[in-house]
Each structure stands twice: as C-alpha cells, then as structure tokens.
C-alpha cells in the first residue's frame, strides 16, 4: 500500500477517504476542546449552553482565519522528507491513514471517558510513530529518520505550557483577590438560572471568547498542515508548490551550488544521499534556466537572505571544495525539467538537510548562517495553504465546537476542584490560557488548549485554597502521560502494516 499508482482510481479514493478523516478529526477536535472555553460561562450561567457554543464556534472560526502557518509546518516538519513527498509522486496514503486513524481513535476514547485530553498530543504522537515506522521500513537509524530536535522542541512546549498555566492562573487569582473585592467573583453560581450580575457576567463572556479565538488560531493550524498533506496528494500539479512563491525556483545558480556544497561537506546523517541527489537536481535546474554549467564552487554573495537583501558579512560562507559523487554528476548532466511534485520533494529533502547542518555544534557559525538563509529562501515554496483550506479547517473546527461539550464541561466545572468553579477561578484560568495559547500560536509552538486551561483551573483552585480532587486529577494526568506512548505505538504499527 506504500506506493499507489498516481492518479489511479484507488489512489484517489484512498486520498478522498484521508480528506474525510482529517475533516472528521478537526470536527472532533472542536467538540472535544470546546469545553475548555465554554465551561466557565455555562457553569456560572453567564450564557445558556446553546449561546455559549455558538459564540465559541464563531470565535474559533475567526481564530483559524487569523492564525498563521508556523504551527502547521512545525508539526509537518516532524515527518521525514520522503514521507512528505513519496517517490514518483505517489500519495502517502498509509501515512495519512495512520495519522488520522490513531489521533481520531484516541480523541474519541478520552472524550467518551469524560477526560480532558489534548488533540495536539494525539497528532504529535501519531506523527512521531509514523516517522519511527518509516525509519524501520527504510533500514535507517532512528537518529536519522526522526528529527528528534524538532520533536524535543515541540514536546518542551507541550510540557511547560501546562505548568505555566497552573502557576499563572494561581497567581492571577491571588492578584484578583487582593485587588477586586466584589464577593460575586468568589462565590459559586447561585441556584436557579440567574446569571452573575453585570460586569462579572461579561468578564466571563470575554474570557470565553478569548480562549475560543486562541484555540482556533493554534489548533486550526494543525489541521491546516494535515489537510495540505492530503491536498497535495489529490492535486499534486496544482498544490505541490506555492503558486505565489514558485518564482523562487529555479534558484540563483550560486545559491544552488552553495547549497549542494554545504550538504556535501556537513550533512552526514542517514538521509544524506537523498538530500545530495535533491540538491543536485535543483542545481541542474538552476543551471539549465541560466543557460550555463558552473562546475567551480561559487560562494553565496554576503549570505543573501530570502528577500534578496544582503545579510551581515560574517554570514558569508567560505568556499567549500566540491566533492560531487558520481550520482550527483549524472544528475547535473541530465534534464532539469522537473515536475512540481519532484521539486516539492527535493525542496523538503534539502531543507531537512540544511536544518540538520544548523544543529551541528562543529559547523562554523558563518556556514550555519548561510544554511539558515537558504532554508528561508526555500521554505515559502512548499509551506503554504490556499484560502479554501483555511476556510475548511475553520468550518470543521467551529461546527464541531457546537456539539459534544457536556461531558468535559462537567469534569472541568465539578470534578477538578473540591468546590464548584467560581467566576474568578474560571476567569483566571481562561485569561492566562488565552495569553499562552496566542503567544505560542504566533511563535510557531504547538500547545494544548486542553492542558493549559485544565491546569489553569487546577491552579486557580489551589490559589483559592479550595484544593483539587486527587482522583480526577490523577486520571487526567495519567491520560496525558499515556497519550504519547499509545499514539506513537498505534501509529507506528498501523503505518508499518499498511505500508507492507
């Protein structure tokens, strides 16, 4: 199942199934994570449930549209480049089925149990599982087939953000208690259907809106990245390369040569041959477009960056002697006319190789600077999303937001703390959560709305002195700890079996 014939009916049918699965996953993400935003307004009766979820859905929708793409491709870059663009343009159906199937199954399981769990955690675990299985399939060392530095960066954000949410919400609650003396903030909601009075009610409506918007801006990006993997498989000629940035290819000849030289001298991992072959093809394309052959090394002039402007002089790369292999020379002598799918695969291979060079301690600073400039020049060619993909992600997330929230709302409102949630506790958790999620979304770090807000509620409970219910908190923490190993193992096994 690893290599379908491109454009065959079976290939298109399987990719269409993957498209449906990613939309279902984003829909489930919506109703699984909705409770993090609407729990306080529903539980304090600030808004009726129907109004709360509609408001949350609308804010999620606009959050997705306003978000960037840095989180989307921070996740995509966890996958090995050959899985992103399989040989001969064949769609990576096993990869997509393993990703979506695993993440969706674990999301539904935790939702059914009423345990707040992270959709981001599910996706990241599934991606790492696919990368590990891909390494086994190709006989690579795990250090070569999995970008552990990127994995570590992502997991650090997932690990530290709940701690920041816990501490931040506890401190904000204490500050609120010291400054704002209105007793309505610190009392559980009264019996009956009466909402909190005036400003307290609108404070909670505002924090609900902020968390919903921030959730859309971060989590929406994750589905955008996954949708794009399917879109490229379905319509490779249209979406393999960014139509707005395709003019960056062919590269300037001197940039293409320098890129090849850096990889030849400094990239020594298990994917080196693939990266060198890709760099050679991009160089051949550049030379053919320029109507010349340049066998001699040519340094990147002053480390020119992706905008065409010169970078600082200390980033200029010293001339590296050419050490082309027989394979590279053959590629250089061949035709430079490549399909968009092949170019996409080559760009991902070269970007992955240059990224590994920047992480090596022994590489000179000037070489690292040039490698980063070349990465920045190449990434916009393949890292993009059409407007309709953003709209599809926003629609699935916002529609999912409008159902399925009751189980998690009850857990957050009643079962984390020893007392019922008060307006001040909910507002503290949501204000801190919204700030952390928005910050992470615009700096390219995928974080979990569920983890941050749930930890924030626990922090506000501790800050108020009411304490937490250890049994429920233990269940939540165990689910969090189990998510990564379970999704890694499930996705790896599923990908391996489907690939055979």
From TrEMBL:
Gene Ontology molecular functions: phosphate transmembrane transporter activity; symporter activity
Descriptive protein name: Phosphate transporter
Membrane topology: Multi-pass membrane protein
Region (Disordered): 288-314
GO CC terms in record: plasma membrane
Keywords on record: Cell membrane, Membrane, Phosphate transport, Symport, Transmembrane, Transmembrane helix, Transport
Listed transmembrane segments: 12-31, 52-76, 91-109, 121-139, 159-179, 476-498
Sequence similarity: Belongs to the inorganic phosphate transporter (PiT) (TC 2.A.20) family. Pit subfamily.
Reaction(s) catalysed by this chain's protein: phosphate(in) + H(+)(in) = phosphate(out) + H(+)(out)
Subcellular location(s) per record: Cell membrane; Membrane
A GO BP entry: phosphate ion transmembrane transport
InterPro entries: Phos_transporter
């Amino acid at each position: 199942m690893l290599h379908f014939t491109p454009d065959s009916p079976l290939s298109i049918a399987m990719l269409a199934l993957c498209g449906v699965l990613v939309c279902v996953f984003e829909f489930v993400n919506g109703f699984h994570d909705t409770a993090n935003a609407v729990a306080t307004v529903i539980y304090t009766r600030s808004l009726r449930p129907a109004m709360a979820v509609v408001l949350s859905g609308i804010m999620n929708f606009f959050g997705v549209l306003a978000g960037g793409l840095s989180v989307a491709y921070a996740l995509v870059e966890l996958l090995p480049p050959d899985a992103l663009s399989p040989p001969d343009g064949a769609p990576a159906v096993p990869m997509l089925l393993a990703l979506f199937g695993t993440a969706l199954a674990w999301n539904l399981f935790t939702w059914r149990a009423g345990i707040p769990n992270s959709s981001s955690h599910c996706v990241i675990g599934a991606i790492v599982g696919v990368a590990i299985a891909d390494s086994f399939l190709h006989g690579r060392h795990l250090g070569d087939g999995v970008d552990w530095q990127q994995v570590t960066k992502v997991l650090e954000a997932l690990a530290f953000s709940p701690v920041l949410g816990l501490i931040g919400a506890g401190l904000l609650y204490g500050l609120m208690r010291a400054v704002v003396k209105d007793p309505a903030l610190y009392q559980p909601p009264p019996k009956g259907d009466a909402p909190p009075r005036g400003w307290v009610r609108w404070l909670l409506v505002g924090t609900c809106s902020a968390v919903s918007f921030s959730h859309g801006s971060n989590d929406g990006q994750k589905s955008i990245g996954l949708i794009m993997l399917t879109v490229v498989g379905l319509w490779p000629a249209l979406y393999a390369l960014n139509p707005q940035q395709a003019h960056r290819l062919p590269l300037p000849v001197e940039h293409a040569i320098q890129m090849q030289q850096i990889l030849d001298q400094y990239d020594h991992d298990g994917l080196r041959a693939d990266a060198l072959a890709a760099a050679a093809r991009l160089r051949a394309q550049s030379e053919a477009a320029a109507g010349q052959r340049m066998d001699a090394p040519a340094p990147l002039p002053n480390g020119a960056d992706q905008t065409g402007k010169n970078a600082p002089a200390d980033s200029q790369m010293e001339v590296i002697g050419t050490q082309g292999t027989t394979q590279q020379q053959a590629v250089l002598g061949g035709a430079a006319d490549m399909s968009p799918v092949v170019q996409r695969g080559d760009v991902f291979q070269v970007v992955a190789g240059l990224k590994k060079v920047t992480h090596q301690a022994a590489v000179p600073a000037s070489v690292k600077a040039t490698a980063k400039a070349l990465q920045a020049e190449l990434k916009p060619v393949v890292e993009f999303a059409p407007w309709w993909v953003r709209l599809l992600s926003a629609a699935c997330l916002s529609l999912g937001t409008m159902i399925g929230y009751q189980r998690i709302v009850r857990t957050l409102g009643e079962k984390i703390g020893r007392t019922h949630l008060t307006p001040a506790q909910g507002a503290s958790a949501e204000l801190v959560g919204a700030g952390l999620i928005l910050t992470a979304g615009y700096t390219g770090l995928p974080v979990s709305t569920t983890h941050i807000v749930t930890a924030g509620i626990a922090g506000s409970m501790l800050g108020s002195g009411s304490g937490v219910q250890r049994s429920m908190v233990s269940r939540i923490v165990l689910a969090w700890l189990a998510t990564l190993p379970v999704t890694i193992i499930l996705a790896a096994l599923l990908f391996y079996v489907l690939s055979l």
